[in-house]
Amino acid sequence: MSIDTLKICRVEIDTYHENVAYLNRECSIYRVEGFQALSKIEVKVNGTRLLAVLNVVDDNSIVQPGEMGLSQQAFKHLNVAEGTLVTVDHAEPPKSMDAVRRKINGERLSQSDFDAISNDIAETRYSKMEMAAFLVATGQNNLDRDELLYLTRSMLQSGERMNWHEPLVADKHCIGGIPGNRTSMLVVPIVAAHGMLIPKTSSRAITSPSGTADTMEVLSKVNLTPEQMSEIVRQERGCLVWGGTAKLAPVDDMLISVERPLGIDSQGQMVASILSKKLAAGSTHLIIDIPVGPTAKVRHMRQALALRKLFEFVGDRLNIHLEVMITDGRQPIGLGIGPILEARDVMQVLNNNPNAPADLRQKSLQLAGRIIEFDPDVRGGQGYAIARDILESGRACAKMNNIIKAQGGKDIDLQPGKLCYPVCADRDGVVTRIDNFQTAKIARIAGAPMDKKAGIDLFKKLGNEVTKGEPLFQIHAEFPADFKFATKLAQQNSGYSIGDSEQVLQPLIAF
Predict the structure, then answer these.
(1) What's the pLDDT at 52?
(2) For residue 160, what are the CA distances in angstroms to 249, 399, 407?
(3) 265, 359, 451, 457: the active-site residue
(4) What is the C-alpha separation between 328 and 110, in angstroms, rounded?
């Protein structure tokens, strides 16, 4: 083995959207080249190049002095067998960082600047620290609407783009922040049963108790290849799959991996993220759901209206027919929070169960109705009635069952976690407020979404009368440690406020 080559070995560490390489401190190349921990290096083999962040290790059981260790992400990207010889060198700093520095100084960036930044991020030239600098520089409304358009366009062009070869491809997206809001799992079968194409790629939860993909995974497989997804959509006119395997707008996924730990969620980045993903998925007609409430992601009507204008401006210039619905975000939607409990709510609505949560049913019909009105053969105002007929006739349930079967249906068990703790009212009165953030936090501490059976089951909603000692909701968990922490958190703050009927939080909008 030459002194300037190293053998590749796989290090079983998941570094989530970041290529990481590992060198032993006693490695001759490490000493000769003067590498430093967290510097960027370039690994080459057979004409393939990999840019990675360097970690230095002192444990020979991880990496030997003559080896180059690669994280799971990096090893998959390089796509060579263990033991293959590679060369390693210093990586050239990304030239587009000059544009990031100019943005930090308050300058306005051009389309070519954003293209260069997105290209360098897609090629993994940016470290997470450099991506964080970009996010901070463009956050807090530091992008004007033209810059937002440039960013969305550059993110869209960073990956593959699906083409369904149909004039109308529908989709919907909620900006989030409302627990239990599983409307997509009802909208998709209703719209698909009407005959419209609705290939739904959804996210997994990052900071919430469940994403659409987590809840759908209770019923069927969601990790499908683009080819499998395409076949199912052609057959059933719809799907509900995880979007992480489709390589759509990959720069968005890489930026999200930095945004979430830092708690960065600016309006501009949100708009660019959503629209780049939807356009890459081939959508031509899109409904955006913006819930508004005191503990929602958007807390004021003026903020919702400003966000709607941004969506409409960018959508219009990127040729996607886009409509925004501002909805009631005062409290969780449905009765279950957590994958199993949310899947139960969805199936109850689809089966027209009289115990199904009325708010989840109503909101889903409103959203589905608006999408159905994209159909040129449907007159304005008729969509809701058509959606309701599809649901009540059982056609939506049949379509959902077909989609579940096509995606690889599972043995469905909708029983929540066996460890239960009821959280009760401390006084007589009515429910005046429910904190979305706190209820989501309790469900997550209980184990959701990693533990599909964990979460909370709501018994009372806004305006409901309660008596002292009556259960407001019940915590479900599978593991004692999660159960202990969740119950302690709920005892400290249940997220519920009990008062008089005139104190009930009123909606900011009429939905």
Answers:
(1) 93
(2) 7, 29, 22
(3) 265
(4) 37
Q: Are 275 and 281 in contact (CB under 8 A)?
A: no
What residue ranges of the chain are covered by domains with CATH 3.90.1170.30? 419-503
User: Is the N-terminal amide bond of 261 cis, ω within 30° of 0?
Assistant: no
Span(s) in the chain for CATH 2.40.40.20: 5-90
Q: Which of 164, 234, 169 is nearest to 374 (CA)?
A: 169
Supply the mean pLDDT for the chain: 93
Q: pLDDT for 101-113, tens place per residue?
A: 999 999 999 999 9
Q: Do residues 15 and 74 make contact, with C-beta atoms less than 8 angstroms apart? A: yes
Query: How far, CA to CA in Å, does 46 sit from each of 30, 103, 217, 406?
Result: 22, 38, 39, 40
Q: Which residues of the chain have pLDDT under 70?
A: 1-3, 140-141, 206, 245-246, 509-511
Tell me the H-state helices in 195-237: 212-216, 226-236
**Domain 5-90 is of which CATH architecture?**
Beta Barrel (2.40)
What are the residue ranges of CATH 3.40.1030.10 in the chain?
170-407
As a whole number of angstroms, the distance between CA 96 and CA 117 comes to 5
Query: Which pLDDT does position 31 carry in this prediction?
Result: 76
- Range list for CATH 1.20.970.10 in the chain: 97-156
Topology of domain 170-407 in CATH is Pyrimidine Nucleoside Phosphorylase; Chain A, domain 2 (3.40.1030)
- Out of 1.10.10.10, 3.40.50.300, 3.10.20.740, 3.90.1170.30, select the CATH number for domain 419-503: 3.90.1170.30
Q: Which tens digits make up the pLDDT trace of 138-178?
A: 986 679 999 999 999 999 998 888 999 999 999 999 998 89
Picking from 389, 42, 45, 339, the residue whose alpha carbon sits closest to that of residue 217 is 339
Cα–Cα distance measured from residue 286 to residue 297, given in angstroms and rounded to the nearest whole number: 20
pLDDT tens readout for residues 360-412: 999 999 999 999 999 999 998 999 999 999 999 999 999 999 999 999 999 88
Known catalytic residue at 265: yes
Cα atoms found within 13 Å of the Cα of residue 249, Cβ hemisphere only: 23
Q: Please identify, in words, the CATH class of the domain defined by 97-156.
A: mainly alpha
The encoded tokens of residue 143 equal: 């992008």
pLDDT of amino acid 510 = 46
pLDDT, residue 141, reads 64
Cβ partners under 8 Å of residue 343, min gap 6:
182, 185, 215, 216, 218, 219, 336, 412, 414
Query: Tokens 């997804």, residue?
Result: 229
Q: CB under 8 Å to 273, separation ≥6 — which residues?
A: 155, 249, 252, 255, 256
pLDDT at position 445 is: 97
In angstroms, the CA 401 to CA 404 distance is: 5
